[in-house]
Amino acid sequence: MKKILILSLLLIIVFSLSQAAVPGKITIWTSEAQVKALREFVKNFSNKYGIPVEVNEVSFSDIKPKFITSAPTGEGPDIIVGAHDWIGELVVNGLLLPIDFLPKNVLDQFTPVTLQAMSYGGKLYGIPYSMEAVALIYNKNLVPNPPTTYESLVRIAKNLTKGGIYGFLYDYNNFYFSFPFFSALGGYVFKETPNGLDPLDIGLANEGAIKGVEKLVNLFKEGILKQGVDYQTTTSLFSEGKLGMMINGPWEIDNIKKAKINYGVAKLPKIDGKPMRPFVGVQGFMINSRSPNIAILKTFALEVLATKELELKLFETDPRILARKDAYRVVSSNPDIKAFGASAADGIPMPNIPEMGPVWSYMGDALTLITSGKKAPDVALKEAVAQIKDAILKARK
User: Fold this and answer.
1) Which key words tag this protein in UniProt (predicted)?
2) What would the DSSP string read from start to end of 272-296?
3) Alpha carbon of 42 to those of 8, 51, 110: distances in Å?
4) Residue 188 and residue 331 in one domain
């Protein structure tokens, strides 16, 4: 038994070291979707410089926690592929290399919102390759022409809502999906400053946020939104052909196609002439600041990670809205990519600082109180902001 235990421990150590950064070899951790394309694409770099590049598949949910525990001891990879909202925690722990070595003409090729998302404290810490945001998904058999204004959304949805058909629904108590109502008229989570986000300047109960949420409440008054609706309810009704429009993201498209719904994707309608600005999520490449291969990694970043060609290769096996403008133009003939891309271009990066944690729960609670009619928007939002600030200050002590 003792021998088996020792052998097991040795195997674990060998496996860990095989995935770790070592001098003269580049190791990348990525999830299943990107593995095949990356392995094929990096061969030219390996042949050119004689540097082996190893691409290891790691479950997406495991990449960040494993990196946090392994990188400080020198056992982490050189590069990880992950979400922009990991950056705050990783930078605070001193684990990411600032991307201050890419020339301006390369950075200018990226959609600005993607660079903003991959930045922390005014510095860039990742090379973006894809982005995503919600948009208005509609059933073309019920809604031939999607609304472009809040007023037309109300009109179309009211006319449809009868006889077991619903005009417009979405997971309204989820702050992620409701944020566009906050942002349209000037609400924001944390104030953007030249040095990054200010976590104590919260704009979720300012005049614009309150007015936007009042527009949301009005959808209940108009009989459009219904009590008890969540994500599952919304997607099920849409797949059954009983829902005209919903707010959702590109991750739901496969299910819609399987249900054989004649669908379309459009930007969210404007409120009082202002765009509804959804949260934008970005994925990209982050470099381990503790790597022994920093010099060659900078070359690898310029010649591989930041290129149009890599993004297009990744798109072949994992179609996403690409971060480089030139790569996006190549794939934007796909109407879904074009529509979700237009929505993301209007969007706001989901905050990547650790202080975002309490925002989700307190804003979810506030929305539940508001949509159930238990509290007015101004009261619930001001209380939630006070709770968020209190939680942030307590965490600093």
Assistant:
1) Signal, Sugar transport, Transport
2) TTB----EEEEEEEEEBTT-TTHHH
3) 32, 10, 21
4) no
CATH number where 361 lies: 3.40.190.10
Range of the domain at 329: 2-132+280-349
DSSP state letter for 307: -
The residue count of the chain comes to 397
Q: What are the pLDDT digits (tens) for 219-228? A: 999 999 999 9
Same domain, 191 and 271: yes
Which residues have a Cβ under 8 Å from the Cβ of 377 and sit 6 or more positions away?
210, 213, 214, 217, 370
143 C-beta neighbours (distance < 10 Å), count: 23
pLDDT digits (tens, 9 = 90+) for 337-373: 999 999 999 999 999 999 999 999 999 999 999 999 9
Q: Looking at the structure, do residues 65 and 140 belong to the same domain, yes or no?
A: no
Are 33 and 101 part of one and the same domain? yes
Radius of gyration of the chain (CA): 23
Instruction: Determine the Cα–Cα distance for residues 146 and 246; give it in Å rounded to an integer.
Output: 11
On whether both 113 and 11 belong to a single domain, the answer is: yes
Q: Please spell the DSSP secondary structure of 186-205, one letter per residue.
A: T-EEEEEETTEEEEEEEESS
Q: Are residues 284 and 273 in the same domain?
A: no
Verify that 127 and 70 share a domain, yes or no.
yes
3-state SS, residue 304: helix
pLDDT along the chain (397 residues), means of 10: 41 46 88 95 96 97 97 94 97 97 98 96 97 98 99 99 98 99 98 93 99 99 98 98 99 97 98 98 98 97 98 95 97 96 95 96 98 98 98 92
Order across the sheet with 243-248: list the strands.
Answer: 166-169, 243-248, 135-139, 263-266
Q: How many domains does the chain have?
A: 2
